[in-house]
Amino acid sequence: MDVRSRILEAALGLLAAGGELTQPRLARAAGVRQSHLTYYFPTVTDLMQAVARHSFESLAKELGGRGAAGIAAATLDKRRVRLMLALVLAADRDASLKPRMRAFVKEIRARIAPLLKLQGEDLAFLHTVVVGAAVLQLARDNAEARREARMAIDRAIQCVARR
Q1: Contact 10, 29 (CB under 8 A)
Q2: Please, are residues 36 and 88 in contact by the beta-carbon 8 Å criterion?
Q3: In a designed cystine with 149, which of 9, 103, 137, 143 is the match (CB 3.0 to 4.6 A)?
């Protein structure tokens, strides 16, 4: 695995575990010097954007042709939800990350649209339900929350499929 990939994997691991993403912690986790971090990712914004993209690429490979079932399963992955929340917090703290996150959301939707044969408002609605269900499921972290998240996503998919 190349240095850049090691850094991204280590960042994903730290964020998914709920840890803070600092340069010293990330350098230790990736087994690199801090100078490598700034070489590959000059700003925190660059790093967070790369982590988001890396995570999404991993998810896209996992989903393959699984469509709605795959999206629902990904919602129950606490590591991915923690990462999503970390990215949201980073964008809240660093306004320069917001335009990149907007573009990233558009890209996510563009990639999901063909899987579910959705577009426009239906796609935005489903994405919003998935994100909300994921966050609530993580916050409550029990069997009932997982069941409710799955049910909410399934109902949202049925709703947009009927339109």
Answers
A1: yes
A2: no
A3: 137
